[in-house]
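Notebook entry, structure prediction.
Reason for the run: the old model in the group folder had no record of what sequence produced it. Starting over properly, with the input documented here first.
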Amino acid sequence: MDPNVSNIHGLHGNGTRKTSVMLVDDDPAFLQILAASLQANHQDQLDIVGIARSGEDLILKAQALTPKVVLLDLNMPGRGGLWAIPLLRILFPEMRVIALTFRDDENSRRAVLAAGGNDLVSKTAWKTDLIPAIQRVVEMDALEPLYL
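New structure, fully documented this time:
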């Protein structure tokens, strides 16, 4: 494999680059479980570069951390995910955004995509659906939605 060509995990052929991920959720217990699971099971593919607890915190930290993928809770106190997604698109158009929510319905999916997000994963199915979603968005053009 050519070392300059990315594979499905966002790594170069020589395995030196991981996909950088930022976690954003107001629930410390969920953040801890998610971070521990990703680090334990996918440390060769993913690098958790930061954690934010609100949409405002995400915007402030994203410039310094420059994650490739943001895993973003939609429903947080104050300014939540739907507020942050359009700002991320303007400020950091190359970042991929996967929304996390308990409300995995068509209206939520449409709202995420309309705001500029790349995908939505239900918090009830993250253990099976999150890694495939990350792989999909890493492979895609940053502004291309998965579903219309």
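Summary: The first strand starts at residue 19 and ends at 24.
The old model has been moved to the deprecated folder.
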